[in-house]
Amino acid sequence: MAHDIAHQSHSTAEARAEVLDRSQRNASPVEQLPAGVSLGEAYDIQRQLLALRVMRGEQIVGAKLGFTSKAKMAQMGVSEVIAGQLTNAMQIRAGETVKLSHFIHPRVEPEVAFRVSRDVGSGVDIALCVDAVAPSLEIIDSRYRDFQFSLSDVVADNASSAAFVIGDWKPIGEGLADQTVELLFDGSVIDTGSTAAIFGNPMDALRQLNPLIEKYGFNLVRGNVILAGAATAAAVLRPSRIEARVGNLGTVHVEAV
Ligand code: OOG
Ligand code: MG
What is the distance in A from the centroid of ligand 1 to the CA of 96? Predict the structure, then answer.
């Protein structure tokens, strides 16, 4: 039937997920998707991609938001908030070493992380389901050649998720808005932003997940983490001590080798 042509079949989504999955595992870039893949289809590819990881024994431990700041939107040429999913295999403990050879062309972002305190049911405001915040670093690594993508491309590619590290949790307090966010390589500040850059404050950035949960069905449960998105542009990762400083939340670091 003619109208079927407009929709990717289940097997097409699966095949596209397999290509992206192999790209990530081999640290070898792939071409962008053909033009015309809808956002709905892209989230379907992302689901299949995560299903492959879960089949290999990984556990989904949370979600991340992308493009919650103007700096990020401008850097990547897109203007809509997206979400991806985090697995335990992506988590690096604070202070530990991360090998750049596992990635294609990794970049790093200083972020704020939220801890989910209760299972997130349908129609519930995500802001009411978190109880703690922490400084964090996200390593992103687009599977597409030259880090070039459309919005659907990057959604299918799990929002470029590659690795993340979370610092010490603090109860959510007053002082979350207007905190200075700094990214340091070997002790030198290489970029500075503010938590105000992500939708005015991290809580409102977090709320950008609400419509995405309703529309695309992310399953978030107690103990999960959510990255609220970078306040600065992402920086090309190079071997060094990488540190995020987020105002009164404190700092977190990893050693990139
Ligand atoms: C997509 C991921 C964006 C953020 O914090 O805005 C993101 C990308 O830029 O490759 O993680
Ligand atoms: Mg990010």
Answer: 22
| pTM exceeds 0.85 for this model | yes
- Residue the block writes with tokens 């009164």: 248
Q: Does the beta carbon of 208 sit less than 6 angstroms from any atom of ligand 1?
A: no
CA distances from 207 to 3, 73, 105, 111, 186 (A): 35, 18, 30, 16, 34
Location of structure tokens 């938001």: 65
What does each of the 257 residues of the chain score in pLDDT, given as a tens digit?
444 445 677 789 999 999 999 999 999 999 999 999 999 999 999 999 999 999 999 999 999 999 999 899 999 998 899 999 999 999 999 999 999 999 999 999 999 999 999 999 889 999 999 999 999 999 999 999 999 999 999 999 999 999 999 999 999 987 798 999 999 999 999 999 999 999 999 999 999 999 999 999 999 999 999 999 999 999 999 999 999 999 999 999 999 99
Q: How far apart are CA 179 and CA 94, in angstroms?
A: 21
Please name the residue whose Cα sits nearest to atom 9 of ligand 1. 76
Q: Compute, in angstroms, the gap from residue 140 CA to the centroid of ligand 1.
A: 7
